[in-house]
């Protein structure tokens, strides 16, 4: 039969009329960039996340970039970043001519290893970017303790964790800045690029708003050099429709993960949920020693799967000049060889979950 890695068409079928009505309103009002639909979505996000400010931006990468700019990161500053994450986490640092300093992650949670991070702190360290990878929060209390000790800005990369909760708080609300991505494949995904920065600090929110609009205030008077980092009205209306269903969809993701766990328990290491976390399973990720062979067998049966990520950031070609070597960050390196993500999407049926699980068990 086959199972896709992600089926956005199935999700769209459940919301099509509402999405198209929203899109029509944007055209009727010709409110394409920022404006009332973006403001409405920002207010809905702020309420959902329980933060004072949710600021719509162009994408998740720019959310990170703007946050680092707002934190005053300068050329030569060091920013600690886990080596096992999507490139954008480190790319934002390098874009400012600052230095990403890579640390390792925990093998079970896939999230930042604070011992490794603490060992990387120097006098030049100015910020740290924990990532809530695959949909569960990093040890944010630990990150905040480390940051307080060394006076670091904290940018929480919650691009994969909209709606995840840790000890009663939503992902992306722990730090000075919380960054989200609305890339279409995200659990809250738009119809193109989009992103968000959450903060409880009025002053930081003001700086973020200034920076997302070329540092312009008032019009054509540029106080600082910012970027073109605005969110579109079309994205906002689509995302507003989806936000209303997000808890239900995240709940279905958790059910799917539980069903996978039921199949794999006692046979494979299932992805553990860290104490205090509620995981939204942006990805359901196994660690398999014969990962590539399993992926090949799944592909032969038209079953989708994903490798996030095949290369740790300290070994990426573009960071060669930083001197990272194989063996520096062994857990990240091992995960790049073993991590395999299985299909998880809100409209996935139990029968599809069972088919994937059966194929995995036959392949390992
Ligand atoms: C962990 C992480 N950080 C940052 C980003 C960047 O988001 P975007 O693709 O919206 O720029 C992504 C998404 O792709 C991500 O998964």
Task: Explain how this protein is built.
This protein has helices spanning 8-29, 35-49, 60-70, 88-95, 114-119, 140-150, 202-211, 233-243, 246-264, 291-300, 330-338, 350-363, and strands at residues 53-57, 78-82, 99-103, 125-128, 153-157, 165-166, 169-170, 177-181, 195-199, 277-278, 284-287, 339-342. α1 (8-29) packs across α8 (233-243) and α10 (291-300) crosses α12 (350-363). It is globular. It has two domains: 8-103 and 110-243, Aspartate Aminotransferase, domain 2 (3-Layer(aba) Sandwich); 246-363, Aspartate Aminotransferase, domain 1 (Alpha-Beta Complex). The chain is of the alpha/beta class. The strands form three sheets. The chain has a seven-stranded mixed sheet with strand order 1-9-8-5-4-2-3, with helices on both faces. It has a three-stranded antiparallel sheet with strand order 7-6-10, with no helix packed on it. The longest helix has 22 residues, at 8-29. The structure holds pyridoxal-5'-phosphate. Pyridoxal-5'-phosphate binds next to α3 and α4.
Low-confidence stretches: none
Residue-averaged pLDDT, rounded? 98
Structural domains: how many: 2
What is the CATH topology classification name of the largest domain? Aspartate Aminotransferase, domain 2
**Global outline:** globular
Helix content: 40-55%
How large is the count of helical segments? 12
The CATH architecture designation of the largest domain is 3-Layer(aba) Sandwich
Q: How large is the radius of gyration?
A: 20 Å
CATH class of the largest domain: Alpha Beta
What strand line-up does the widest sheet have?
1-9-8-5-4-2-3
β-sheet strand percentage: 5-15%
Biggest pleated-sheet summary: 7 strands, mixed
- CA(first)-CA(last) distance: 20 Å
The helix/strand order is HHEHEHEHEHEEEEEHHHEEHHEH
